[in-house]
Structures are given as structure tokens and as C-alpha cells.
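Changelog-linked ticket: adenosine-5'-triphosphate example.
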Amino acid sequence: MKAIEVTDLHKSYRTAAGRVPVFEGLTFTVEQGGSLALTGPSGSGKSTLLNILCGLDSADAGQLALLGEPAGLLGPDDWADLRRSRIGVVFQDSNLMPALTLEENVRLRADLAGQSFGPVRDWLERLGLQGLGQRYPDQVSGGQRQRAALAMVFAMAPDLILADEPTGSLDRHTASAVADELFRWQRHSGCTLVLATHDLSLAACCDQHLDLASGA
Ligand SMILES: Nc1ncnc2c1ncn2[C@@H]1O[C@H](COP(=O)(O)OP(=O)(O)OP(=O)(O)O)[C@@H](O)[C@H]1O
């Protein structure tokens, strides 16, 4: 079964200087359980595509089917339901609640997705955050917040993970450890993964690679 089917997708932004195309006629599919790396230079549309894939933005033309559902039939509430329970989103500005500790954030995400609390501390530890579960997001570094956002997504056990530069603010050693956890978890859970990255070694770990600069 296909987790994502994108057909002839077009997207442009309206600016003061006129319409600026981001992509024109993008077509690709990702099988359930597969992984796709989006690469391309800054401004090539990686974040825009991830936003479209989770319903936070819309295309100008073309078709999108996600987890078997034609996107054209989904309203805002359907998208919100999907993001709560089936699509885990890890974006550059991590969506941690500032008033909750890291551990509470992970627990809340699991609750909202209808998953049992499970071994939250295990997730934090496996992502190198041991001892930080009782801290608030503003008491940890950007890279630690990014890893906590990943732990939240693991805790919700989604069918699809969309990750924008999931290792972007990490040093090489930590990035490699976090990527290992991400792919181990993806294989174990059977979920589909789409990640945007400038790191070609991370892209090489995915089954498929879409370079938005070339459309290939
Ligand atoms: N709201 C907006 N209004 C106008 N143009 C926008 C808007 N959002 C993004 N863009 C433009 O669309 C293009 C694609 O942006 P996008 O953020 O998707 O690129 P990216 O490949 O994710 O970049 P990066 O690697 O720097 O994160 C860029 O030229 C950007 O300036």
C-alpha cells in the first residue's frame, strides 16, 4: 500500500514581486513503511512540501493522497486528527509546550494519540536526554529540544513521520546516534518516514531520495 501519492503537484507563493514558483509538476510515491529523503539547496521547497504533506499548507494544483485518504476530501479537523494520532511532525521550531517539562511533553503527546504512557524515560534516554526529563524546554539546548520533539513523535506511534532537519542542530556524533535511533524505530514500528536534510549521509540511509533542486 502507498502511504503517500503525489501527482503533478504545483506550488508557488505570491509575493510583492509576483508569483514565485517553488515546485511545478512534482510526482512521487512512498510505500507504507518506506523512507524518503528530501534534499536540495536552501529555498528549494523541502519545508514547503513537508507542510503540504501534513495539511499546514496547500498546493495550488495536483493530487495528494495520504495514508489512503485523498487530501482533497480532508477538512481542517481531519488534518488536525491526523496530526494528533497518525502523522508525527518534527519541525525546525520544535513543538514542545513551554510550560511542561520534557517528560510531561512526551507523556502528553502519547496521551493525545491514545497511546499508553509507556517507557517515556526510555525514549528520552535512548535519544541521549537522560537526566533532563524534569527540565523545561527553555532550560535545555536547541539540539536537546529537537531530540525531545523526536521522543514525542516516537511516543505517539504514528503511521507517518515528517521530519525537517531532524539532526540539523546536532554535532556529528550525536546526529549519528539520533539517526540510528530514528531508523531503528522506523524499521521496528513499520511507519513511513519523510525527512528533509542537507546531510547526504543521512539521506543515503533512506530508501528513496528526491532532490527538489533537480526534481529527480
Ligand atoms: N510564506 C511564504 N511567502 C513567500 N515565499 C515563501 C514563503 N514560505 C517560503 N517561501 C519561499 O519558498 C521557497 C521554499 O522555501 P522552503 O522553506 O520550503 O525551502 P527549504 O528547501 O525548506 O529551505 P531550507 O533548506 O533553507 O530550510 C523559498 O524561496 C522561500 O523564500
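Closing comment: Example verified and attached. The pocket of adenosine-5'-triphosphate is lined by residues 13, 15, 20, 22, 40, 42-48 (CB under 6 Å). The first strand starts at residue 2 and ends at 15.
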